[in-house]
Amino acid sequence: VGTASPYDLVRDDMRKVERRMRALPFPAVESLPATLKDLLGSGGKRIRPTLTLLFGRMFAVPQERLFSLAAAVEVVHTATLVHDDLIDNAQYRRGKPTVNARWQPGTTVLLGDLLFAWAAQLAAATGSAPVMQRFAAALTTVVSGEIVQTVGRSGRPGMKEYLHRIRGKTAALFTAACESPGLLAGLPAEARLAASYGENLGIAFQMTDDILDFTGKDKETGKPTGSDLRQGLITLPAICYRREHPRDADLNALMGGRVGKADVGRLLQAVRESSAIARAQSIAGEYAGKAAAVLARLPAGPHRDALNDLTRIAVDRNR
Ligand code: IPE
Ligand code: IPE
Ligand code: MG
Ligand code: MG
Q1: Which of 81, 173, 206, 318 to mutate to test the pocket of ligand 2 (most atoms within 8 A of CB)?
Q2: Closest residue (by CA) to atom 12 of ligand 2?
Q3: CA distances from 1 to 4, 276, 312 (A)
Q4: Which residue has the CA at smallest separation from atom 5 of ligand 1?
Q5: Helices in 186-275 by DSSP H: which ranges?
Q6: pLDDT value at position 145?
Q7: What 3-state DSSP class applies to 157?
Q8: CA Rg value for the chain
């Protein structure tokens, strides 16, 4: 008997979702299909479609529609990563070279577009207008969040701006992933609770990703750590650090948009060794706690137990 994981309950479902994701009509161009297959099959934690499947099973959603929905959620996520890595010029993810490391920027943009289009097709396969509506709205929010982050990079974000940004770029998709199964099941009250759970979990999850960018190991996260600060992107640990060290010259240079004037290596180390990390972890824990409190109002059973475990793992992980 292996260690029980919240993923176990929907492992068979996930295999079918994976198959559906890869059923995309590949463009007949040399070696692009291989890149796309790599991309869609390259693992990742699959937390978003797992949430969709667990809520879908909790609400007894018919499985064909549920699998399309879960596939749509993960394909959207994959598309945003393809574009995010191009924008950030990231060279690897999930321990493998990114699409932009292998292809021209133009090709990378188009491959991301292809995935967005495929996700729309999968969402449409649920046959539910409310789900498609929620999906499109979430996508608009995610992309707007990414634009704000790109354009506002050298601003001076406080807690309020930071929260607004991560609600957009991450929590919106978590919300849609959790809310949609209830919509498919025709259970609007439960869907609203699941949406609120997803929103809080998404915030906690992105905060943890931002902490791991300081404390993580590349080998475990599969992506280059320290890159947020190197790009002048101010996230939760830096915001917490600034409260304790308002006069840190390197951080102030970064926040003033003078990235070249800051010793980022020194600053990274200083934040890692400060109490800002524990503070940030405690804030992420608060959002996970809010998520858990909402979850407690949904039907008890194995699916809720698995969601509870997943909530804990979302803020206590090394990848
Ligand atoms: C990465 O998402 C981007 C964020 C919103 C933090 P994940 O951490 O879910 O990435 P994969 O899918 O597991 O690679
Ligand atoms: C994820 O944010 C981007 C989207 C949610 C679209 P990050 O920039 O923090 O993700 P990683 O760290 O590159 O995975
Ligand atoms: Mg990134
Ligand atoms: Mg990150």
Answers
A1: 81
A2: 209
A3: 8, 39, 22
A4: 170
A5: 188-215, 218-221, 227-230, 236-244, 249-255, 264-273
A6: 84
A7: coil
A8: 20
94 lines ligand 1 (CB under 6 A): yes
Cα–ligand 4 centroid distance for 84 (angstroms): 10
Instruction: Return the ligand 2 atom nearest residue 85 CA.
Output: 13
Q: Please, which residues have CB less than 5 A from ligand 4, an ion?
A: 209
Q: Which value, to the nearest 10 degrees, does the dihedral of the CA atoms of residues 42, 8, 285, 44 take? A: 0
Other C-beta atoms closer than 10 Å to the C-beta of 127 total 12
Q: How much helix, strand and coil, in percent to the nearest 5, is found in the chain?
A: 75, 0, 25
Q: What is the pLDDT of residues 249-276, one digit of tens each?
A: 999 999 888 888 999 999 999 999 999 9
pLDDT digits (tens, 9 = 90+) for 185-229: 999 999 999 999 999 999 999 999 999 999 999 999 999 999 999
Which residue from 193, 189, 196 is spatially nearest to 167, judged by alpha carbons?
A: 196
* pTM score, whole prediction: 0.96
